[in-house]
């Protein structure tokens, strides 16, 4: 039995079957028509994601029955829309989107369906297949006991499904973190903000002869239930911290643990018989060798004559000494192993994967440690999956997973599954449960989650339903005099200062206040960086008092919510949009929309261009990204110069790519992280200091204007 913990307010048991399905979201009636937006209907805002705690309901434990299909897929029933039609969806912790087949869900039959035409056609890539369709919002309910678990959810209605068979499921319900989501809203976040208590979810994945289920509800209740189901005290459970990583790994349920395999011994099984045979042959040769020597040298000396007289006794003692030496050598070498594996690695817990997927750099060493010489003569790689002769399982070594003080062993006898095929002649073939891909972390799928420890508990803590101060993405630097211009700096992880968490706003504030004489400015600075969030996502949550970033690790606030208390807003967004399918025109319009929203609450703005990037980021995603970045920055520069018809435009446009380029000089100065996207602490300080020189005249002018208005009011 395995348990993985995620979000919900009540402990609910839901039957699961392995299948994939979409999610939908409904937008409120309130819209803002933004000038210059010629695409689609007026931009509609995301529903409120925060309610005062007193108004949110409490939750209970809910149980969802899961249908187990061959220990490979676990499927739950979900109802979507006003018609209450039910669909079979795979619960997948390795993705964050909800989608359902367009052949099963017909939007026009649901009175509560709200389309999102501005999203256009959205494509989801699952590695082994693709899904493409339209996006909308509707009510989605996991059929749980004692009551269904319902949320208003954005999801995709699949019009085209490639390389995925829909014979056994209708779609996928993703339970991953927001970083994997292609939408502005995912199921985990929806649950997190729907209830008062901190929410978790858990899986109990069993073999087909026993029932599998999922639990959703308050963490405290869920952990007590898990302890009861597994007969394992809570204090003996393995508690692992979820790693909040940027770039390639964002959005996965990633934990750090040690994995080891004892490896195969140098001499074991048939090898020992061969060695014993060699010993017997050596003894026979030695028994004959002294006899031939003695026949040629009988009169050489007295010692040889004695040996000649006692030939049998001398041969026996010589053979005995050699045999003792060989036995001593065997005793020393027999315990020795080869190809042992031990390493501390990042692993993703993924109910949507049936195998243990090992990075290419580790796969050969792990396979050698588990299977030894049998790997060469009895195993083959087929489509990146390791197939072996079924008889190999009994001889192979177990993989050990060290989760803190808890050790879980997974033996190949638990992993092998017959595939009704033959390899390497007439040997029956089995799936080994292992596969390899060019990844930077391991993926532990159902072969681990359902078999590694029948009575073990593996849990994942998920998003809290309310923010905590230590996870707040909003940072403030007060004025030395307690008064002055209030500046808001808003953006993504580059504004947050990730990964060093030294934001450029800190140096900007210090440089503005630390000027000499007339150069000094009195400012109060606030910075909010929503890591991994796109400009389109920020635009969708403008007025929200609490917003979770796309990594699910920090809470910030919507731009307008913070701007209402500011005198000047500085906005830097768009880096995460470069890797999205959104065209440059949509990205620039989304950034313009953020500025327009600030102007409508009376706050002037400064537009910072999309920063430069390079290194691995460009090599991995292609040269189209610099072109897209330049197009976005060019559109912002033209808008800052010409403005909209109503005169709305930023006070300044600053090209940050020119201010801090990703060039040889900046790299030698240590301004860029190795990923080529994020600033180092030194880079953030350099950018802040350079921005201060450009912004100082504007800040002084705005401060003087504010002071003049204040004095005029008093007079």
How would you explain this protein's 3D organization?
It holds the Pfam family Asp. Mean pLDDT is 77; it is low at 1-12, 15-55, 291-299, 453-470 and 710-715. The chain contains 19 helices and 35 strands. The chain is globular. 29% of the residues lie in helices and 26% in strands. Strands 1, 4, 5, 6, 7, 8, 9, 10, 11, 12, 13, 14 and 15 form a 13-stranded mixed beta sheet that branches. Strands 16, 19, 20, 21, 22, 23, 24, 25, 26 and 27 form a 10-stranded mixed beta sheet that branches. It has a 6-stranded mixed beta sheet with strand order 28-30-29-33-34-35, with helices on both faces. The termini are far apart. It is α+β, with helices and mostly antiparallel strands and 715 residues long. The protein folds into 4 domains: 12-237, Cathepsin D, subunit A, domain 1 (Beta Barrel); 258-262 and 339-449, Beta Barrel (Cathepsin D, subunit A, domain 1), CATH 2.40.70; 271-332; 472-710, SGNH hydrolase (Rossmann fold). Helix 3 runs antiparallel to helix 5 and helix 11 (504-513) packs across helix 19. Strand 31 and strand 32 form a beta hairpin.
